[in-house]
Write a sequence for this structure.
C-alpha cells in the first residue's frame, strides 16, 4: 500500500506536469516547478471573475504574519469542480498548496486547499 | 524514495503528459444526439450547449493541432509550429510581440478583459451556446461572454465604408446541404488570431465549414486567408460535444481583474 504521503506526492507531481490552461491570462507569473504549502487562516475569499482569490494569513516562526494572495481559476470552472461561494469563510483554518509567484510576492496560484481536518475543499485545480 | 515509487511516478507522469497533448480524431468522439435532430425548416438542429471534447480549459485542435506545446497555453511565448509563413511587416511584428510578452512588457488583450474575438472565441475554453433562428445563428462563448452573430439573411458583407471593424467581425452564413458555411471579415486589427499574439491585416477572411459529423459531435473546419500577412491559408479544426445538461454561467471579466498594473501589463500582485 502506498502511504498517504506517497499518494499526495504523486497527485502533486501530476499537478506539476499539467499544462497551465489559458483562460484569462498567461500563468507565466507563477513558477509551476515549485510548490509552497501554507498553513493559515482565511482572511478573505473573493468568489469573482475573472479569478477567485483566497487571502490567507500565515503566522511566521518569529511571530510576525503575512497575508498571502492565492489566485484561483474562475467561478464557472471552480463551480464545476465542486467549489462554491461558501466553500471558504473568513476565520477558517486551511492548508493551501500553491505555485509561488516568480516575483517573490507572498502569493501564488492555487493547487489545492484542505480544511483543518485534512479534508480537500472542492477539487484540486490543474 | 523507493525504486518502485519512482517507477510508478515516471509512468504516471508519462501517461499524464501524453494524455494532455493527445487529441483524438473527431471521428472517434462519441456525442449525445440532439432532439429533435432537425428544425422545422429541415436544417440540422444545433441549438443548445457545447463543450470542448478534452474538457474545460483544454482547447481542442484536432489532428492538425499544435505539436510540442500544451493546447491553449501561451506561457512559453513560442511560435506555433502549424502556422504558414508570415509576410513582412507582420513577421517582425509577431516576433516582437512574443519577445515583449515573454519579458512581461505586453499583455494579451483578453487579460485586459477585451473579448477574444474571431477566430479565437471559437477555441473556447469553457462552453458555448448555439441559438438558431431563421435570420441569425448566434454563438456565445462562456469565455469572456463573447457573442457572435452569423447573419443567415445576408448574402454579402457591408461595403468597406459601412463595415466597422469589430472583435467578432461580420459573419454571413448559408447552408451547403447540412454544412453551415460562414464567411467572416471586418475583424479589428488588434485582435490576435491565436493565444500568442498572431497578427493579421485588414484583408483577413475567415471561412468556416461547420458540420455535425456524428450525433452530438460538431466540427468547425476553419480556413484563414490573409494575402497581406500569410503566404498561404492557415487551416485547423475545432470540435465540440453537445452537453444537454450544461448551463452557461455569467463571466464578466471586469468584475475583479486584479492582474493588471497601472501600465496595462498583466501581472500578479
Amino acid at each position: 500500500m502506498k502511504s498517504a504521503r506517497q499518494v499526495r506526492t504523486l497527485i502533486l507531481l501530476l499537478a506539476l506536469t499539467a499544462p497551465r490552461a489559458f483562460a484569462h491570462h498567461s500563468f507565466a507569473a507563477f513558477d509551476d516547478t515549485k510548490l509552497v504549502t501554507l498553513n493559515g487562516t482565511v482572511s478573505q475569499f473573493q468568489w469573482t471573475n475573472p479569478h477567485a482569490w483566497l487571502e490567507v494569513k500565515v503566522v511566521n516562526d518569529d511571530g510576525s504574519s503575512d497575508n498571502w494572495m492565492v489566485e484561483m481559476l474562475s467561478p464557472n470552472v471552480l463551480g464545476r469542480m465542486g467549489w462554491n461561494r461558501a466553500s471558504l469563510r473568513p476565520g477558517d483554518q486551511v492548508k493551501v498548496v500553491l505555485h509561488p509567484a516568480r516575483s517573490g510576492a507572498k502569493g501564488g496560484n492555487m493547487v489545492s486547499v484542505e480544511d483543518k481536518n485534512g479534508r480537500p475543499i472542492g477539487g484540486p485545480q490543474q | 524514495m523507493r525504486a518502485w515509487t519512482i517507477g510508478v511516478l515516471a509512468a504516471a507522469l508519462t501517461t499524464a503528459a501524453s494524455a494532455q497533448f493527445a487529441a483524438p480524431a473527431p471521428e472517434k468522439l462519441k456525442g449525445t444526439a440532439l432532439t429533435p435532430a432537425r428544425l422545422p425548416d429541415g436544417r440540422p438542429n444545433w441549438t443548445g450547449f457545447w463543450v470542448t471534447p478534452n474538457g474545460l480549459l483544454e482547447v481542442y485542435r484536432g489532428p492538425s493541432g499544435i505539436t510540442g506545446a500544451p493546447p491553449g497555453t501561451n506561457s512559453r511565448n513560442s511560435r506555433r509550429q502549424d502556422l504558414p509563413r508570415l509576410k513582412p511587416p507582420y513577421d517582425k511584428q509577431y516576433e516582437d510581440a512574443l519577445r515583449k510578452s515573454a519579458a512581461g512588457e505586453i499583455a494579451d488583450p483578453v487579460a485586459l478583459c477585451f473579448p477574444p474575438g474571431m477566430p479565437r472565441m471559437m477555441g473556447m475554453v469553457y462552453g458555448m451556446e448555439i441559438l438558431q433562428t431563421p435570420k441569425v445563428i448566434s454563438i456565445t462563448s462562456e469565455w469572456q461572454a463573447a457573442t457572435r452573430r452569423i447573419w443567415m439573411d445576408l448574402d454579402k458583407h457591408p461595403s468597406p465604408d459601412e463595415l466597422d471593424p469589430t472583435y467578432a467581425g461580420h459573419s454571413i452564413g448559408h447552408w451547403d446541404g447540412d454544412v453551415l458555411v460562414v464567411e467572416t471579415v471586418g475583424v479589428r486589427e488588434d485582435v490576435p488570431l491565436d493565444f500568442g499574439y498572431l497578427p493579421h491585416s485588414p484583408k483577413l477572411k475567415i471561412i468556416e465549414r461547420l458540420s455535425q459529423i456524428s450525433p452530438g459531435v460538431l466540427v468547425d473546419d476553419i480556413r484563414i486567408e490573409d494575402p497581406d500577412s500569410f503566404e498561404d491559408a492557415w487551416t485547423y479544426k475545432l470540435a465540440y460535444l453537445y452537453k444537454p445538461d450544461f448551463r452557461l454561467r455569467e463571466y464578466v471579466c471586469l468584475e475583479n481583474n486584479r492582474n493588471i498594473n497601472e501600465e496595462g501589463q498583466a501581472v500578479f500582485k
Observations:
- Residues 9-21 of chain A have pLDDT under 50 and may be disordered.
- Chain A touches chain B at residues 2, 6, 9-10, 13-14, 17-30, 46, 48-51, 53, 69, 71, 73-77, 79-80, 101, 103, 105, 107 (CB under 8 Å).
- The radius of gyration of chain A is 14 Å.
- Helices of chain A lie at 4-17, 75-80.
